Amino acid sequence: MNHSLRSRLLLGIAATTLFGLAVTAAVMYLAIRGTLFREFDELLAAKARVLVTLVEQQGDELLIKFADHPMQEYARQIRPEYYQVWDEGGTVVARSRRLASGNLERTAGSLAAPRYRSTNLPDGRPGRLVGVQFLPAVEGESLERRPEIGDDDPEQTVDQVDFSGRRRVTLVVAKETAEIDRTLGRLAWTLLGVSTAAIAAMLAILSWIVKRSLRPLADLAAQIAALDER
User: Whole-model pTM above 0.90?
Assistant: First the structure.
């Protein structure tokens, strides 16, 4: 009976401990994963905004300044990043050199709220992409500011910019997530190892505590077993 009681106690405590550690490890993993991807997406969006500033409209033509002189990360042969630009009609007007004849998934958010997606890059690597849709600048454009009538406060001036002739442009930038995947893999194995070691240590300590705590009950059981009909 004593052995059965000790087994049930250890099993119940072990199951509760295992559940608690599993939930804690899962919450930590998801929280760290979310933080890593948020930082990655912010970096990706910053790259997209830099490229946006290099797109201009001259009459009805779009001038993609980074297409003729590509940045190193979009031109390298090893682990390249990618970009693709569409006009408002869906025609591709520029793509990164290593994209060749392939296409990125066309998706569009805004500059204030870019749209992110996980994807497989053209060379098969897992990655993330960000898409923004915007109105390009016009070469030589300046903001004309005029005060409201009867108001000399410069804070009340109004921007006079004509956007009626602008062609809406979609830009998508993609980058691999291999570093994040490796980090998350190491994190998962670390959490598993720490949890396993913690469970083993707790079971050893609990086994000793339960055995010591049940010793009076074992003595009582031995005394009862020694009783005869007298």
Answer: no
